[in-house]
Amino acid sequence: MVVLESYACGEWKKGIGNPRVLRNAVTGEPIAEVSSEGIDFGAMLRHGRERGGPSLRKLTFPERAAILKKMAGVLNDHGDELRRIAGSYGATAKDARLDVDGGIGTLAFYASLGAKQLPEARVLADGDVSRLSKEGNFVGRHVEVPLEGVAVQINAYNFPSWGMLEKLAPALLAGMPSLVKPATPSAWLTFRMVQILIASGVVPEGALQLVSGSVGDLLSHLTCQDVVSFTGSASTGEKIRTHPAIVKNAVRVNIEADSLNCIVLGPDVAPGSPTFEYFKNEVVSEMTVKAGQKCTAIRRVLIPEERAEDVIRALRESLASIRVGDPDAEGVVMGPLVDEDALVSARQGIEKLAPETEIVAGDPGRKDFEPKGGFFMEPVLLRCRDPKRAAAVHEVEVFGPVATLVSYRGAEEAIELGRKGGGSLVASIYSDDEDFVARTTLGLAPYHGRLVVVDARSAPESNGHGVVMRHLVHGGPGRAGGGEELGGVRSLHHYMQRVALQGDPDWLERLLAR
Ligand code: NAP
Questions:
Q1: What is the atom index within ligand 1 of the atom nearest the CA of 187?
Q2: 408 alpha carbon – ligand 1 mean position (Å)
Q3: How confident is the model over 287-301, as pLDDT tens digits?
Q4: Active site residue 295
Q5: DSSP assignment, residue 134?
Q6: What are phi and psi of 144, to 5 degrees?
Q7: Is 256 annotated in the active site?
Q8: Catalytic residue among 33, 295, 378, 485
Q9: Beta sheet of 151-154, edge-to-edge order
Q10: 169, 219, 333, 336: least surrounded by Cβ within 10 Å?
């Protein structure tokens, strides 16, 4: 059994006390044990601030980018091993590529961005110089400097590689040391990646630390120079946001939480048309990739009332062809959920939706999967009986292979229903009717972080509803946490302090050139 240690203050440390045992999602066999008890979180933060921060801040952006490039190279060299470990939490080969290769790709993207788009400097100028006086001898300009604390990155279980690297890359590039805390159920992959990075010696000491196991009293030691970047459920996000030390010290927090994302099928899209087929495939893919354990997965499928029967028939047929089981077995498309808690929670979620829905495809109680000990569930499609009066359908995120059909009458009703999610990460609109697309896009935009519009022309090249792009921001208002990540250079701002500098224009120019 692998013992997942924490990397704290320059040493690998095993937690004391009763460890939590992690199981292989496919077989149910124990694979690793983990505990963070006894780890001195205060000392870890001090080590990051005193060792990692100064080492990073003395480098320019391109020099930090060179570190990211080396990190991506080292991880790539271990790609096969890392994808194999991803299999232990139920990833199919495609899921593993999404997490492992997607994460390394994000690291490489930030390496390239730092080398090509950022200046040979340690601070970033933001915007133009503003003239503040008559003669022009007193001006103002915004600049951004790295915060001098630690970027605490708390991640969700569904992307142990990508989730870590999409936060780590911009933080290091901005000049902030990071303390990574993966979700426990899939922590083995993150542990191994950090082990590889530390052993390679490419990351300056103190710039990368790891907590394997629970957070303990970590948050109590945070100061105004630290940052928390959190991805996970809305309920944990709320606990973090209201933590006394975070409130008292106004610690900067970015929350990426769960989301009742929707896809909207336009009334113009006829069954059998290319756009209809793309829509159908997208729903099935979002329900089954990573067994639906994706923050961006489609949870609500908004369809014109008159198309309901056609959509049900098409989706039932496609879902029936999805083989669930051991990801290594021939023909298997969808693996298990991460652990028993996730399986129980997905089944309970369907029960919560039951008063407002009926099952149109799949059986949440099915148990005859192979291997016997795995945490499997087949895709389940529900239909909402009375969408406008329903509450749970718009509020309960079932984090698994589950989606609900919600019928609407007209663009205004589609917008109203989409907004009932209370703020989501992403919505997609499948239609070739420009007027419908314009109305729904503008109606849904204030409630979403990302909108994907797909018509017959763009469909073949579309990246899809659920794929987060590094160049574009990821996050959403309200229920989705109100946070923002990625988006190219934008993500660096989260780890830097913007200062309005005022003074002599020549002095300002000389300062920025230093
Ligand atoms: P979770 O239970 O909220 O846990 C997320 C992280 O928070 C884990 O690392 C967890 O550690 C840690 N944590 C738990 N209690 C904490 C506390 N009191 N203070 C600080 N940290 C704490 O979420 P999950 O089950 O891992 O992930 C699934 C959820 O994440 C879904 O709801 C999904 O929608 C959401 N998600 C959102 C995004 C996004 O980008 N918006 C992306 C992926 C997933 P332990 O595991 O050790 O308890």
A1: 46
A2: 33
A3: 999 999 999 999 999
A4: yes
A5: S
A6: -120, 130
A7: yes
A8: 295
A9: 11-13, 6-8, 208-210, 178-181, 151-154, 227-231, 252-256
A10: 333
- 512: pLDDT strictly greater than 90: no
* Ligand 1 atom nearest to CA at 157: 26
Tens digit of each residue's pLDDT (9 = 90 or more) over 324-345: 999 999 999 999 999 999 999 9
Using the predicted structure, report yes or no on whether residue 514 has a pLDDT greater than 80: no
390-433 pLDDT, tens digit each: 999 999 999 999 999 999 999 999 999 999 999 999 999 999 99
Token pair recorded at residue 112: 């390239």
Q: 70 with 38: CB under 8 angstroms?
A: no
Q: Whose CA is nearest to atom 23 of ligand 1?
A: 232
Give the separation between CA 318 and CA 324, rounded to whole angstroms: 13
Model confidence band, residue 284 (pLDDT cutoffs 50, 70, 90): very high
Q: Are 218 and 36 in contact (CB under 8 A)?
A: no
DSSP 325: S
The DSSP element (H or E) to which 168 belongs, if any, is: helix 162-174
Mean pLDDT of the chain: 96
- CA dist 251 and 245 (Å) reads 8
Which has the closest alpha carbon to 209: 43, 401, 441, 412?
Answer: 43
The rounded Å distance from CA 438 to ligand 1 centre is 35
State the average pLDDT over residues 235-242: 95
Cα gap 494→472, rounded to integer Å: 15
The residue written with tokens 């896009």 in the block is 441
What is the secondary structure of 348-366 as a DSSP string?
HHHHHHGGGEEEEE--TT-
Residue 195, exposed/middle/buried by CB under 10 A (0-12, 13-18, 19+)? middle
Task: Assess contact for 336 and 353: CB atoms under 8 A.
Answer: no
Confidence band for 438, pLDDT divided at 50, 70 and 90:
very high
Taking CA atoms only, the protein residue closest to ligand 1 atom 35 is 232
Ligand 1 neighbourhood includes 345 CB (under 6 angstroms): no
pLDDT at residue 1 in the model: 87
